[in-house]
């Protein structure tokens, strides 16, 4: 536990201001929409420590579901890369960091394409829920050591928690270990500041459960055609909204090789990449570039605006409306 400071709870970190009134936010290069592709390249323990289970798995021995995911790094990733390479799509890989050691071919494919590495934990079946401060601190230290050791000294800039998990200490520890963004919050179409106890700058990076093959295809049984139509409709609407109100937006397209690397899906993945590459109003970029741009150009202004708004809200309350 941090000495001398009371930990913030996650609901105390939020900085509220509606899109319609907040100061204008731009994206790198002046784009109306910043598009970042987030391939989730994951490791799944055959027998997970602590009993973590992926969606849909059954009791041991669970060959059906384990092998479905295992196929992603054996076959699916390499098919996905054909579409990524064809459209020179920059990607921010949500990576289970154990793969840096255990599957060097995956690591080399990531490094050859100069993908940004976003931590997705050590394994996707080892969530952060319930970790003590010291245990989570050790997790972040190990994450950076793995990246430095296997990625030419590069340090990790952000995280999507394993199974989108975290604790009330996660934001403090992200900053303490040199990270600038977290993708777990999924509550806005622009990066947003997150308060930290020591005042370190941290932003929530818009990720997506909608433009995401697992919830839309695996869980809700959308067809590839339906999923890509939804993705393009959402990006198209973000463009029109940005033109109308001047607020640039972020679109994250999240994939998993065990789904988006399936043969039948290749043409759909190519279609969405071709769509975003054909429009000069869209910048295909990385989560790190979006975070850097936001922190340099907008972070302080957004925090100050939200603080004034909060003061106005409190001043407008009658004594009977003030919660104890």
From TrEMBL:
Which superkingdom? Bacteria
GO biological process terms held by the UniProt record: carbohydrate metabolic process
Which InterPro entries does the UniProt record give? Glyco_hydro/deAcase_b/a-brl
PANTHER family the UniProt entry points to: POLYSACCHARIDE DEACETYLASE (PTHR43123:SF4), POLYSACCHARIDE DEACETYLASE-RELATED (PTHR43123)
- Please state what the protein is called: Polysaccharide deacetylase family protein
**Source species, please?**
Microbacterium betulae
């Amino acid at each position: 536990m941090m000495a001398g400071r009371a930990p913030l709870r996650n609901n105390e970190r939020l900085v509220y201001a509606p899109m319609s009134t907040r100061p204008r936010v731009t994206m790198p290069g002046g784009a109306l929409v910043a598009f970042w592709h987030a391939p989730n390249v994951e490791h799944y323990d055959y027998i997970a420590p602590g009993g973590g289970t992926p969606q849909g798995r059954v009791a041991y021995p669970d060959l059906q579901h384990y092998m479905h995911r295992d196929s992603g790094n054996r076959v699916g990733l390499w098919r996905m890369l054909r579409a990524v390479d064809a459209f020179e799509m920059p990607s921010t890989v949500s990576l289970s960091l154990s793969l840096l050691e255990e599957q060097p071919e995956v690591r080399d494919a990531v490094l050859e394409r100069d993908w940004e590495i976003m931590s997705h934990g050590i394994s996707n079946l080892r969530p952060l829920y319930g970790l003590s401060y010291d245990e989570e601190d050790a997790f972040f230290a190990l994450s950076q050591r793995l990246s430095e050791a296997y990625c030419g000294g590069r340090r990790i800039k952000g995280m999507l928690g394993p199974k989108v998990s975290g604790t009330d200490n996660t934001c403090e520890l992200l900053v303490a270990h040199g990270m600038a963004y977290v993708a777990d919050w999924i509550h806005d179409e622009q990066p947003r500041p997150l308060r930290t106890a020591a005042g370190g700058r941290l932003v929530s990076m818009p990720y997506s459960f909608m433009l995401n093959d697992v919830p839309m295809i695996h869980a809700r049984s959308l067809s590839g055609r339906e999923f890509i139509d939804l993705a393009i409709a959402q990006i198209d609407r973000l463009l029109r909204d940005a033109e109308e109100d001047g607020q640039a937006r972020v679109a994250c397209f999240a994939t998993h090789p065990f789904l988006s690397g399936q043969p039948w899906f290749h043409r759909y993945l190519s279609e969405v990449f071709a769509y975003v590459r054909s429009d000069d109003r869209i910048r295909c970029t990385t989560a790190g570039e979006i975070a850097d741009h936001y922190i340099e150009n907008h972070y302080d202004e957004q925090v100050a605006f939200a603080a004034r708004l909060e003061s106005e809200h409190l001043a407008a309350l009658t004594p009977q409306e003030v919660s104890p």
